User: Which sequence fits this backbone?
């Protein structure tokens, strides 16, 4: 078992892989060509004293993966849009992220809370109320994933997601890719 576990995520028409010192993304352009991008990771956030504290380390890694994930998603989107002479701008990215966060908060947090608050007068205990709210959230997440699976572009991302898992598993096991 390796000391370091690699990570990654699916992006539009490709995968991002994160190692100990570098992150790389490979994306299939509309022309069929594979476009590669690689960059070093900021070692200061991983080697600092504060970055080794359990709770802080988790927050740092979560933030790092969020930033890397959005950056590689935008890279893959720009590769896909290259033939259309369109590029995503920083304001477009910020607007997309803010709109996405608002929709997530509304759909997965506020909507279940509102539904349960309407039914709370019929529910005898707070434990049952919390369980019902949790069940509604799980149903919303499953319904969202199922609905997204009907979109052809998202199906393709799901396929790349599986390829990313298989690639990391093979690499960590020392198997041929």
Assistant:
């Amino acid at each position: 078992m390796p000391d370091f576990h690699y990570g990654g995520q699916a992006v539009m028409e490709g995968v991002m892989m994160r190692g100990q010192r570098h992150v790389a993304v490979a994306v299939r352009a509309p022309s069929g060509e594979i476009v590669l991008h690689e960059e070093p990771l900021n070692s200061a956030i991983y080697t600092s004293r504060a970055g080794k504290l359990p709770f802080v380390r988790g927050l740092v890694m979560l933030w790092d993966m969020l930033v890397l994930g959005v950056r590689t998603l935008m890279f893959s989107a720009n590769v896909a849009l290259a033939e259309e002479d369109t590029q995503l701008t920083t304001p477009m990215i910020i607007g997309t992220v803010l709109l996405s966060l608002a929709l997530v908060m509304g759909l997965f947090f506020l909507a279940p809370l509102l539904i349960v608050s309407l039914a709370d007068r019929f529910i005898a205990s707070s434990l049952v109320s919390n369980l019902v709210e949790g069940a509604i959230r799980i149903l919303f997440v499953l319904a969202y994933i199922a609905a997204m699976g009907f979109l052809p572009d998202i199906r393709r991302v799901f396929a790349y997601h599986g390829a990313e898992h298989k690639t990391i598993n093979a690499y960590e096991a020392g198997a041929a890719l």
Q: What stands out?
A: Residues 90-119 form the longest helix (30 residues). Helices lie at 44-47, 54-81, 90-119, 126-148, 152-173.
